[in-house]
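sry for the spam today, last one i promise. C-alpha cells for design, 478 residues
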C-alpha cells in the first residue's frame, strides 16, 4: 500500500465544499495524482457541539441534555434541531434532488435510530435495576459518530457526482455487533480497497474497543487519521486546516504579523500539543514518529503554500525560537507543607493522586516544601483533587488560582541570553512572571503569568522574537 498519502480535513474546511474540492482534492489532477490519497474527515463545523456540547460556550448538546435528564423533550428537541441543520446543509450541497435523497436518508435513518435507542434506554433505566450512568459513555460515542458519518458520506457522494471513483468508508460501527481494536478495525475495513484506483473518504470517528472519546477526547479524528497512515505505511500524512501552523495564534497576534513555520520536528509538535495549540494530537504523533512518516500541516485556503513539514530529524540551521504559544484558564494548584522537606516521595505521591483524579497536567514543579501542579481541567476536577490532597496532607496549605502558561518553542533554542530576552520582553510590557521553567534539552521555555496577561504576553514575546530587528532565524519553506 505504499506510495499514497493519508490526509485529514478539519471541520471548518469541510464546511466549505468548494474549497475542499478545488484546493484539497483538485479535480484537475491527472489520475495518478487524483488517487493514492485517503481522506479522513471531521464532522462539519459545529455539528459535534450540537451532538455533545459546545466546549467554548458550554451550551449543552444532545448528549449533555440527555445526561442531565431534566426533560424527555429537551434532548429530543435538540436532536431534531441537529437533524434540521444537517438536512439544510444537504439542500445547499446537493442541487440534484435524486442525489440529495441518498444524503437525507442517511441522516434520517441514523437520527431516528438514535432517538429510538435513547428512548428505549430511558425506559429501561426507569425501572431502577439499570443505571443510566453506566451507559452514558456509550451514548456519547454513538452520538459523536453521527457527525463524521454525515460529512464523509456527503463528500463521497459529491465526489462521485464529479466523476471520481470515491468510496465512503464508515468506521462508526453503526448497527455492527463486532467491537474490534482500532488497529484491527482499520485493517479489516481498508483491506479490500485499491488506493491507486479508489479515493477513500473515511469517517474520523472509529467505533472500537478503546472507545475513542473516552480515550482521546474530542481529538479522536486525528487518532484515526494517524492510525490509518501508520497501518497503511503512507509516504506522508497531511492535515488540512483553516490556518497555517504559524509563529503564534493569528487570532491573538494578527494575521499580518504571523508567518508559517515551514519546517520543524515532532519534538516541537509535542510541546505544542501539551498546551493545546495542536499540530496533531499528542497520542497520535507517536505512531508517525516510529514509522518515520512525515507530517505536513497545510492551510486549506492557501493551496499553493507547502505548509509546515514535521519530521523526526529536522533541526533549525541556527538556534532560534520557532513559535510562541500558550494556554489560559489554567489552574495553578499549590500544596505547601513543611513536613515534605527532604522527602521526595511526596512529589511522586501528589502526582499519583492527580492522576487518580484524572485531571490534565500541563506541568509540575516542586521545591523543598511546595509542589505546584498546572492543570487544565475544570472546577469539578480541581475540587475533587483538592479534597483528595487535603485528606492525604491534613497539615498542608492548599490553594489554587487561574494562570496562563506561555511557551516559546524551537527545535534548537541553545541561544545565550534567551532566558533574559524572554524576561525583558515581558517586563517591557509590565507583565510579571509568576514562574519560569527551562529544560536542558533547549526546546522550550515556559513562563507562567496571570490569566489576564495571556494575550499581552503572547504579543510581547512574538514582537521580541519575530517582529524586532534582532530576529536571527527565518522560517524554512517546507
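last one done:
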Amino acid at each position: 500500500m505504499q506510495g499514497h498519502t493519508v490526509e485529514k480535513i478539519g471541520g471548518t474546511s469541510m464546511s466549505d465544499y468548494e474549497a475542499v474540492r478545488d484546493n484539497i482534492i483538485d479535480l484537475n489532477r491527472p489520475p495518478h495524482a487524483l488517487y493514492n490519497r485517503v481522506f479522513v474527515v471531521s464532522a462539519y463545523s459545529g455539528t459535534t457541539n450540537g451532538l455533545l456540547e459546545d466546549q467554548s460556550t458550554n451550551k449543552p448538546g444532545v448528549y449533555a441534555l440527555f445526561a442531565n435528564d431534566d426533560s424527555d423533550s429537551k434532548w429530543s428537541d435538540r436532536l431534531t434541531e441537529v437533524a434540521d441543520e444537517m438536512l439544510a446543509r444537504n439542500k445547499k450541497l446537493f442541487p440534484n434532488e435524486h442525489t440529495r435523497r441518498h444524503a437525507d436518508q442517511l441522516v434520517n435513518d441514523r437520527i431516528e435510530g438514535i432517538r429510538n435507542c435513547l428512548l428505549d434506554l430511558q425506559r429501561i433505566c426507569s425501572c431502577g435495576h439499570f443505571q443510566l450512568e453506566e451507559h452514558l459513555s456509550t451514548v456519547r460515542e454513538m452520538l459523536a459518530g453521527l457527525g463524521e458519518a454525515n460529512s464523509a458520506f456527503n463528500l463521497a457522494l459529491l465526489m462521485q457526482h464529479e466523476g471520481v471513483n470515491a468510496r465512503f468508508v464508515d468506521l462508526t460501527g453503526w448497527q455492527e455487533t463486532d467491537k474490534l481494536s482500532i488497529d484491527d478495525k482499520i485493517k479489516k475495513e481498508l483491506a479490500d480497497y485499491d488506493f491507486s484506483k479508489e479515493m477513500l473518504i473515511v469517517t474520523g470517528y472509529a467505533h472500537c474497543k478503546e472507545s475513542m472519546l473516552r480515550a482521546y477526547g474530542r481529538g479522536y479524528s486525528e487518532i484515526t487519521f494517524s492510525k490509518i497512515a501508520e497501518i497503511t505505511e503512507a509516504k506522508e500524512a497531511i492535515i488540512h486546516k483553516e490556518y497555517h501552523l504559524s509563529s503564534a495564534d493569528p487570532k491573538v497576534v494578527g494575521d499580518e504579523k504571523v508567518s508559517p513555520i515551514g519546517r520543524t520536528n515532532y519534538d516541537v509538535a509535542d510541546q505544542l500539543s501539551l498546551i493545546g495549540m495542536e499540530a496533531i494530537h499528542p497520542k497520535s504523533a507517536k505512531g508517525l514518529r516510529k514509522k518515520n512518516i512525515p507530517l505536513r500541516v497545510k492551510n486549506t485556503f492557501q493551496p499553493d503554500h507547502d505548509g509546515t513539514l514535521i519530521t523526526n530529524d529536522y533541526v533549525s540551521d541556527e538556534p532560534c525560537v520557532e513559535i510562541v504559544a500558550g494556554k489560559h484558564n489554567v489552574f495553578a494548584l499549590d500544596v505547601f507543607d513543611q513536613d515534605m522537606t527532604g522527602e521526595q516521595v511526596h512529589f511522586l505521591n501528589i502526582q499519583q493522586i492527580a492522576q487518580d483524579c484524572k485531571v490534565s497536567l500541563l506541568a509540575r514543579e516542586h521545591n523543598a516544601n511546595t509542589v505546584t501542579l498546572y492543570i487544565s481541567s475544570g472546577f469539578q476536577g480541581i475540587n475533587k483533587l483538592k479534597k483528595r490532597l487535603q485528606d492525604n496532607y491534613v497539615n498542608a496549605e492548599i490553594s489554587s488560582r487561574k494562570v496562563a502558561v506561555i511557551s516559546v518553542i524551537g527545535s534548537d533554542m541553545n541561544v545565550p541570553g534567551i532566558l533574559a530576552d524572554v524576561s525583558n520582553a515581558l517586563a517591557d510590557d509590565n507583565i510579571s512572571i509568576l514562574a519560569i521553567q527551562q529544560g536542558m534539552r533547549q526546546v522550550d521555555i515556559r513562563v507562567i503569568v496571570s490569566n489576564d496577561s495571556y494575550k499581552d504576553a503572547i504579543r510581547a514575546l512574538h514582537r521580541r522574537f519575530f517582529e524586532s530587528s534582532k530576529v536571527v532565524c527565518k522560517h524554512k519553506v517546507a
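The mean pLDDT is 90. ok im logging off now
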